Amino acid sequence: MATRESLDPYLLRVLYTLLVEKSVSRTALRLNQSQPAISVALKRLREIVDDPILVRGKGGMVPTERGADLLEHARNALNEIGRIVEPKKPFDPARSTREFRIGTRDHMTLFLVPRLVERIRVLAPGTKLHISALGADFDYEVAFERDSLDVAIGNWLAPPDHYHLQALFEDDVASLVAANHRYASRPWSVEEYLRLPHVAPTATVVGQRNVVDAYLASQRMQRNTVITLSYFSLIPYTLCDSDLVFTSSRRLCEHFAALLPLKVVQPPIAFPPMRYSQLWHERTQQSPECVWLRRQIQDAARALSHARFDESS
User: Fold this and answer.
1) For 166-196, what is each residue's pLDDT tens digit?
2) 8 A C-beta contact, residue 23 and residue 64
3) Of 17, 120, 231, 296, which is the most exposed, with the fewest CB atoms less than 10 Å away?
4) Cβ of 40: how many Cβ atoms within 10 Å?
5) What gap in Å lies between CA 158 and CA 71, rounded to an integer?
6) CATH level 3 topology of 9-85
7) pLDDT grade, residue 222 (50/70/90)?
8) What separation in angstroms does the CA of 159 have from each of 204, 209, 276?
9) For 134-153, how does the pLDDT look when each residue is reduced to its tens digit (9 = 90+)?
């Protein structure tokens, strides 16, 4: 059995116009083609669909039953092709009902996320925002590839090469201990800091060190971590009336020191600043909606940085 010719966009447009105009001459005029060219196209179409499509009637040409059925299919197919080739419409946040999906560590909900939510509720009130906690139970790389994540926010030492990364803000590193901790009011040595029992968050990706342990390892040092927790927000409560030490961003430490009987202390090791960035997959690089979302995250981070500067001045 011979293989039939495929239906290309040109033949599809000729088919649709013939069924609407019911005339080879009017079709040729409308498509700016010669009558012989349309006649050749009609012959090809008849071979492809194995039907005359149009036949002579009393007042001109009329569609066959099969031809009449093809009209709606041809219209829909041309509309779909048009959607593929037409330029992407500009994103209108005020009218959008898009669902945005962000992955981040839970402590970002204390600082960055509230500012981001405020912006989105004002600028794009019809959108929805889903925020997932990064960690062992939520692999951002898998989520990106499954199209279930638009952007991730965190402090990566070495993110995968095939992702886009944009810096957002920095924060100094500090330690947090109970207010009655023996090192809450006196300096400590590097040896004492490393020997004391530490509580730490689990890494964003299973099998990788968190940024504090990664830096210590680069300096050939290791702290005594005795407790690990998946959520940053739970850690400060384990410090109260204990000998544990927690090391993280200064903003986070100061936040909980104002709420709980805790004290912020300077660690004896000169940790580099924690650098927070937003990360996204190549598939959303050109998406107008995601470009807009990343801009809102950047603006919220800028506002956060300014707020910290104002507080410290």
Assistant:
1) 999 999 999 999 999 999 999 999 999 999 9
2) no
3) 231
4) 13
5) 56
6) Arc Repressor Mutant, subunit A (1.10.10)
7) very high
8) 11, 13, 12
9) 877 788 888 888 889 999 99
- The amino acid present at 156, given as its one-letter code, is W
Would you give the DSSP letter of residue 107? G
SS3 287: coil
Helix (H) or strand (E) holding 169, with range, is strand 164-171
Structure tokens at 186: 């006196």
Q: Where are the alpha helices (DSSP H) in 86-159?
A: 112-123, 140-145
Name the nearest CA neighbour of 17 among 28, 6, 7, 2: 28
Using the structure block, give the residue that is written with the tokens 């009209």. 71
Q: Is this structure's pTM higher than 0.85?
A: no
Instruction: Give the residues across from 164 on adjacent strands.
Output: 280
Report pLDDT digits (tens) over 95-114. 999 999 999 988 888 889 99
Q: What pairs with residue 54 in β-bridges?
A: 63
Half-sphere exposure (Cβ direction) of 73: Cα atoms closer than 13 Å: 9
| Domain range 173-272, CATH architecture | 3-Layer(aba) Sandwich (3.40)
pLDDT beyond 90 at 58: no
Say if residue 3's pLDDT is above 60: no
The answer to whether 151 touches 278, Cβ cutoff 8 Å, is yes
* Residue with the two structure tokens 């994540």: 149
Residues making up the chain, counted from first to last: 313
Instruction: Please check whether residue 239 is in contact with residue 264, taking contact to mean a CB–CB distance below 8 angstroms.
Output: no
Give 130's strand partners. Answer: 101
CATH superfamily assigned to domain 99-170+275-312: Periplasmic binding protein-like II (3.40.190.10)
User: 236-278 pLDDT, tens per residue?
Assistant: 999 998 999 999 999 999 999 999 999 999 999 999 999 999 9
